[in-house]
Input
Amino acid sequence: MSCVLVLTNPMNDLLSLIVHHGYIIIFLIVFAEAIGVPLPGAVALVAGGAAAASGALYGPAVALLAVMAMLLADSLLYVLGSRTGWTILKFLCRISVDPETCVLRAAESFYKRGRPTLLVAKFIPGVSTMAAPLAGSMKMPFFQFLGLDFLGASAYALAYGAVGFIFRDFVAKIVSGFRAAGHAVEIAIIMAVIVFIGYRVSLYWKHRGDRVVPRVQVAALEAKLQAEGPGKILLADVRSYGYYSAAAVRIPGSIRIEPNNLSAEIKQFPRNKDMYLYCTCRGQTTSASVAHLLREQGFSAFVIDGGLAAWRRAGNPLEPVPATDLVHLPTFSQ
Output
């Protein structure tokens, strides 16, 4: 069956693919987007709605397959979240400078807004991928999650499918409009790049003092510990917002320093010991910031280059984190 729509370029290609290969293409694209792959699930649904309007596909079947694809992907992410907890969330926050902070803020935001977040999560980039593993990590009952996710997925599929079905005759005009607005898009992209560069420069300027903090290699620290003993050295774990897993470990003999409460804790630190700080964030950002503040107060503070990961890679011993130091995600089961 030929399609009466006369579309061009990406939309025409996608619609042609959907018409010739059936429902499986919509299912795969929507599933991939839901699992976190950067594919245009919304565009596939619009094209599917247009194909249904032309008679090439059966509309209810398109909507049903799309919802099934989202539910399957979200269920997998839910299970990963419930089994791995902070690990999968930290992976999703991997582009953050401080993954621990990113995870905790995302969890608190999701918990504060509550279960209805799942009804609109599909329409919000970023949240759509984080919502399912967050629900699993925060122990939301599975069938409760599934029910809310079904409603959200149905709204998403019907909304974009309806756009393609109702406005099929205008899709070509919309595509042409985007093409005509190419110069405006280019200007917007350039401005976004300038803003991003300005943001990075501001971060560099803000943390410029952190870069002068001396860094010590793990091997040098090991030699110092063996030569002088642990009594003359203070190891400090400065992971933001504390520890996040019952399986968390740290360098033996470490103390806990809460970066967000440094002004109160600083009074307890000995001034006759060298302090070696470590964390797990990229570039040891937290360690460098805390060490810089400590050095301004007259402490002899250093950053362990590579942080806890470097210590672990060197094959050095680790110890479990005391249960009293653990920070737990808020849960919906409480």
About this structure: Residues 9-180 form one domain. DSSP finds 15 helices and seven strands in the chain. The chain has two domains: 9-180, 213-325.
